[in-house]
């Protein structure tokens, strides 16, 4: 039975509250010590082969063991305008984590930050920047362990309408949530300041 803190009687069960009770409500946000640590299944991430095949072991990747702001920003951008493809069969032989930049200006600002994340935090040097025919730029990392890492963080291989905020983000500290939202809004956010309405949105 949920209890409420009252000025006149202290902690009181909800069923025992009376019209005379003065319920006190917190006027400041409550801060909880959310963990930075990332819980990973390394055996699954580095398991070789797919579809019953036995392949050579993957090259080592330094997977982050804790959340950082740059990692959270990339995950947010990945949810907003990226995709994960994992090699699972003969029709999908290449695993890819990729994000899309809509303009050269976006690519010039964001690609170096994300490239630094992969190179310095994960030891992945082969980060490809590909100019697409429609004028966009894709930043790709073709490493199965990397794709599996982001999937364990809650990244999805689904199309945009089926994507959701990963559960791990809800369990992260406020600074990490802020980094995720910064990446998500940069990828898929908008601000409208019209004569009749103003709003900030996603999608």
Helix-strand layout with pairing:
Blueprint: E1 3-6, E2 10-13, H1 42-45, H2 69-81, E3 82-85, E4 96-101, H3 104-121, E5 128-131, E6 137-141, H4 144-152, H5 167-170, H6 174-188, E7 189-193, E8 198-202
Antiparallel strand pairs: 1-2, 3-4, 4-6, 5-6, 7-8
Helix pairs in contact: 2-6
Could you describe the 3D structure shown?
This protein is α+β, with helices and mostly antiparallel strands. Helices cover 31% and strands 18% of the residues. A four-stranded antiparallel sheet has the order 3-4-6-5. α2 packs parallel to α6.
Shape: globular
The major sheet is characterized as: 4 strands, antiparallel
CA-CA gap between termini = 40 Å
Number of H- or I-type helical stretches? 6
Overall mean pLDDT stands at: 87
Percent of residues in helices: 25-40%
Sheet-strand content, in percent, reads 15-25%
Q: Segments where pLDDT lies below 50 for 5+ residues?
A: none
Category from helices, strands and their pairing: alpha+beta
Q: How many strands?
A: 8
Order of strands across the biggest sheet?
Answer: 3-4-6-5
**Gyration radius, to the nearest Å?**
22 Å
Order of helices and strands: EEHHEEHEEHHHEE
Q: What would a concise description of this structure say?
A:
31% of the residues lie in helices and 18% in strands.
What keywords describe this structure?
four-stranded antiparallel β-sheet; 203 residues; globular; 31% helix; two-stranded antiparallel ribbon; single chain; 8 strands
